[in-house]
């Protein structure tokens, strides 16, 4: 099938005509029928973590765990046995990548020349992950709205209950009975504090200014080390080329702080042993899709710890309000962090196994 929107160059032509492929979120390679790469698009480059030049010197067959189906399909499509072939495969990634192999769906297509074949590679995980993220986001939004309305409903009668208990207390002359009214007042106060935290993200106005991500990290680092002065190291690994951006500094400090505090709290055993560690790592990311929007440039802040990991039972619900796996936790830290990051059009992901938990904040850069 010829590709009407891309003018394919003749032999020795410039790669500029393939530029349109760089706009795609899926990986694309243009190859010879024997698998030699002529072109790799930006998404393919990013996923392999290699430059286009390096990929173009290789054969696509080298990047596929079992190259036989690809070899056969390339030959068949070039011979015009059929115009398009599809199959699933494992993409090998350079040594040291995590994960080192990636399940992909491969689509091999003819071009206007028998000497060139277009190979599209779609991350299978990516598709299911995007679907899942979208579903979770919708659910989380609904839950948040429900909780906000509920909090409002609780707030109003709560004032009445507390006030009445106080009035009653003044009328009572037995200490034994005032103990009961005191319990009512104290519990009303506790509930009031909870309700205030539930409503907090919607209270403060969004204040926008120039924000430096490393200044935020340093603030959070100082705060966390002040709260946990013993047995915890907070290491930093910054890409200082990350530019400043427009955002709400206080909100972002709160978001990063909530995540870092969780890590420090989860590290109680290791803190006692003196080998607890948190890493604050910043990186630039290119061609990032957040929700339905694609950004050319984004920053990633990885908050990693060597703790026991998010409890399995709540792993897929940690961003939901009131979900906590911690004694005395109210389950509001992460949903609040997520709300603040979403207000910056960003996203938070969590990847957790015992010994290594990473919360990744992605924020688009202009
Ligand atoms: N780095 C981490 N390692 C292990 N578990 C974590 C980590 N981060 C979060 N969790 C788990 O996720 C739960 C939810 O976190 P969240 O910050 O939303 O609430 P909380 O810490 O329980 O309470 P709050 O932050 O409102 O005081 C935590 O209770 C904890 O079980
Ligand atoms: Mg917390």
Description of the molecule:
- By secondary structure, the chain is of the alpha+beta class.
- The protein folds into 3 domains: 15-126, Beta-Lactamase, CATH 3.30.450.20; 129-202; 209-365, Histidine kinase-like ATPase, C-terminal domain (Heat Shock Protein 90), CATH 3.30.565.
- Helix content is 40%, strand content 25%.
- It has 9 helices and 12 strands.
- The chain has helices at 42-48, 52-56, 68-78, 124-171, 175-199, 213-227, 249-266, 268-273, 333-343, and strands at 27-31, 37-40, 84-92, 101-110, 117-123, 209-211, 232-237, 245-247, 276-290, 293-305, 347-353, 356-365.
- A 5-stranded antiparallel beta sheet has the order 2-1-5-4-3. It has a 5-stranded mixed beta sheet with strand order 7-9-10-12-11, sandwiched between helices. A two-stranded antiparallel sheet has the order 6-8.
- A hairpin with a 2-residue loop joins strand 9 (276-290) and strand 10 (293-305).
- Helix 4 runs antiparallel to helix 5 (175-199).
- The protein is elongated.
- It starts with 26 loop residues before the first strand and ends with a strand.
- Residues 1-14 have low confidence and may be disordered.
- The chain binds adenosine-5'-triphosphate (ATP) and magnesium ion.
- Magnesium ion binds at residues 258, 261-262, 329, 333.
């Amino acid at each position: 099938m010829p590709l009407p929107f891309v003018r394919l160059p003749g032999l020795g032509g410039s790669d500029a005509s393939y530029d349109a492929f760089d706009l795609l979120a899926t990986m694309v390679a243009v190859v010879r029928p024997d698998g030699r790469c002529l072109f790799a698009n930006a998404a393919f480059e990013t996923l392999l973590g290699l430059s286009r030049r390096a990929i173009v010197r290789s054969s696509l067959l080298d990047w596929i765990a079992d190259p036989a189906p690809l070899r056969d399909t390339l030959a068949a499509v070039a011979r015009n046995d059929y115009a398009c072939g599809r199959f699933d495969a494992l993409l090998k990634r350079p040594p040291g990548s995590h994960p080192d192999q990636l399940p992909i769906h491969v689509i091999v297509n003819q071009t206007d020349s028998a000497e060139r074949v277009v190979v599209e590679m779609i991350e299978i995980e990516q598709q299911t992950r995007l679907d899942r993220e979208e579903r979770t986001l919708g659910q989380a939004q609904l839950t948040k709205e429900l909780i906000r309305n509920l909090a409002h409903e609780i707030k109003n009668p709560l004032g009445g209950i507390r006030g009445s208990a106080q009035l009653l207390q003044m009328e009572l002359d037995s200490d034994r009975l005032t103990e009961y009214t005191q319990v009512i007042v104290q519990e009303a106060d506790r509930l009031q504090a909870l309700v205030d935290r539930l409503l907090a993200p919607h209270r403060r106005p969004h204040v926008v200014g120039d924000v430096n991500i490393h200044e935020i990290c340093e603030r959070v680092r100082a705060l966390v080390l002040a709260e946990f002065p013993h047995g915890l190291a907070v290491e930093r690994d910054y890409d200082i080329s990350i530019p400043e951006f427009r955002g709400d500094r206080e909100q972002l400090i709160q978001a990063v702080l909530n995540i870092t505090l969780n890590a420090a709290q989860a590290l109680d055993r290791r803190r006692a042993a003196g080998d607890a560690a948190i890493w604050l790592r910043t990186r630039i990311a290119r061609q990032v899709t957040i929700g339905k929007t694609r950004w050319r440039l984004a920053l990633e802040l990885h908050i990693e710890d060597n703790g026991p990991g998010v409890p399995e039972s709540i792993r897929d619900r940690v961003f939901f309000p009131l979900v906590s796996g911690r004694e005395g936790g109210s389950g509001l830290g992460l949903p609040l962090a997520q709300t603040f990051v979403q207000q910056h059009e960003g996203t938070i992901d969590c990847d957790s196994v015992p010994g290594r938990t990473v919360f990744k904040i992605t924020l688009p850069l202009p």
